[in-house]
Amino acid sequence: RPPFDVNAVRRDFPILQERLSGKSSGKQLVWFDNAATTHKPQAVIDRLAYFYAHENSNIHRAAHELAARATDAYEGARDKVKRFIGASSSDEIIFVRGATEAINLVAKTWGAQNVGEGDEIIVSNLEHHANIVPWQQLAAAKGAKLRVIPVDDTGQILLDEYRKLLNDKTRIVAVTQVSNALGTVTPIKDIVALAHSVGAKALVDGAQSVSHMRVNVQQLDADFFVFSGHKIFGPTGIGVVYGKRDILENMPPWQGGGNMIADVTFERTIYQPPPNRFEAGTGNIADAVGLGAALDYVDRIGIENIGSYEHDLLAYATQGLLTIPGIRLIGTAAEKASVASFVLKGFTTQEVGEALNREGIAVRTGHHCAQPILRRFGVEQTVRPSLAFYNTCEEVDRMVQVVYRLATARR
Ligand code: PMP
Question: Same CATH topology for 6-43+301-408 and 45-300?
Fold first, then answer.
């Protein structure tokens, strides 16, 4: 029995009642593209509307009542993020646009200050392009070297190979907690500890983990932890950099402007302490507040409940997919979350995606912004169903049936 009422949960998400038009005419939406983005519960939609109807103002800068309301809502959201990921202080939470901007912020501030010629940066073969390109750019600018932890044939990180890459030139290790392309859950705590053993910092990409498992940044001992609001039932355009306070305090700012300064003359500027130092200009106030509402919603269901329900659902989906002739699952690590990537012999991923779309079932097909890991498995693209806690076994059955029929129909 599920640890919560899935049907009640589904009623919280208006878009899940949506009937489709076009090629999937009349079919009810099945959303299996949760790794790309998640849907929003009514509580989040209502919170955004409430902000604009009753609280809208710029923050921090005025004596009037609405400024106080908006500031309280925004800083309240920061506190919710702090609690949700187990940070020790709200000052360790920086609001940005998403995981991509978060990693770029760290590379362009901490990285610019701490990575020099001959230094080494380590990423894994599993990374999303957002956790590759900024480090590659930094390495090129500084004359540093990017090194890559390989994975085994299941798509799991090879810790022994990682150990061999670490040395006194390693400055930072940037690795994902869950792979967006394969679903692999990496041994992130060990990865962080090993980075620290050579004096390097560790950045954890939590874009695909926070919505599926309990994250505690202090237990992980992560120096930086990043995620996107839109992948955890919150709005687009809002994301988070967590950084340990002493590290953030010593980091130079990235963008300059209002809000991030304590005092400005034409001769010099004194910056605010974190987090404001890293939040130049008017931020995405409403969507930060919306993210806070999303985290409250997840707390009400319980992230452990979500994780255990999704674990069973993924096992069920994997079992079903494996009955299909000609299917090859890409990514078979013992520990996985949400994602079941596959290719189907004799069909392009596009053809599989279109067959599913005709039945109202949304999956991502393509390279998932993670080309290196797909190439590691000899493919350029996969079909990638990715599950959330509002999905059901019936939806999985529909998906398996469509792919099964496609695989066994005479061409
Ligand atoms: N890292 C991972 C593991 C991701 O899955 C994603 C989004 N697909 C990102 C980073 C980038 O997130 P965003 O596009 O929201 O900035």
Answer: no
Chain centre distance of CA 353: 23
What would the mean pLDDT of 166-181 be, rounded to a whole number? Answer: 98
Instruction: List the CATH code of the domain at 45-300.
Output: 3.40.640.10
In DSSP notation, 307-355 reads HHHHHHHHHHHHHHHTTSTTEEEE---SSB-SB-EEEETTS-HHHHHHH
If you measure from the C-alpha of residue 219 to the centroid of ligand 1, how many angstroms do you get, rounded to a whole number?
23
| Structure-token pair, residue 165 | 């890459």
Euclidean distance between CA atoms 100 and 130, whole angstroms: 5
Probe target for ligand 1 pocket from 175, 228, 236, with the most ligand atoms within 8 Å of CB: 228
Q: Omega into 275 within 30° of 0, i.e. cis? A: yes
Residue 203: beta bridge partners?
Answer: 174, 224
| 102-106 contacts at long range (C-beta below 8 A, 24 or more positions apart) | 102/226, 102/227, 102/239, 102/240, 102/241, 103/130, 103/131, 103/134, 103/174, 103/203, 103/205, 103/226, 104/134, 105/241, 105/254, 105/278, 106/134, 106/203, 106/224, 106/226, 106/241, 106/243
Domain 6-43+301-408 belongs in CATH node 3.40.630.10: no
Please determine, for residue 411, whether its predicted confidence score (pLDDT) is greater than 80: no
Higher pLDDT, 2 or 64: 64
Domain edges within the chain = 6-43+301-408, 45-300
Checking if the pLDDT of 61 tops 90, the result is no
Sign of the Cα pseudo-torsion (368, 214, 97, 121, in order): negative
Q: Is 369 a catalytic site residue?
A: yes
Residue 18 and residue 376: Cα distance in Å, rounded?
A: 38
DSSP SS3 for 174: strand
Looking at residue 102, its amino acid is: A
- Cβ < 6 A, ligand 1 pocket: 98-100, 128, 130-131, 176, 180, 205, 207-208, 228, 369
Which is nearest to 134 in space by CA: 203, 36, 215?
A: 203
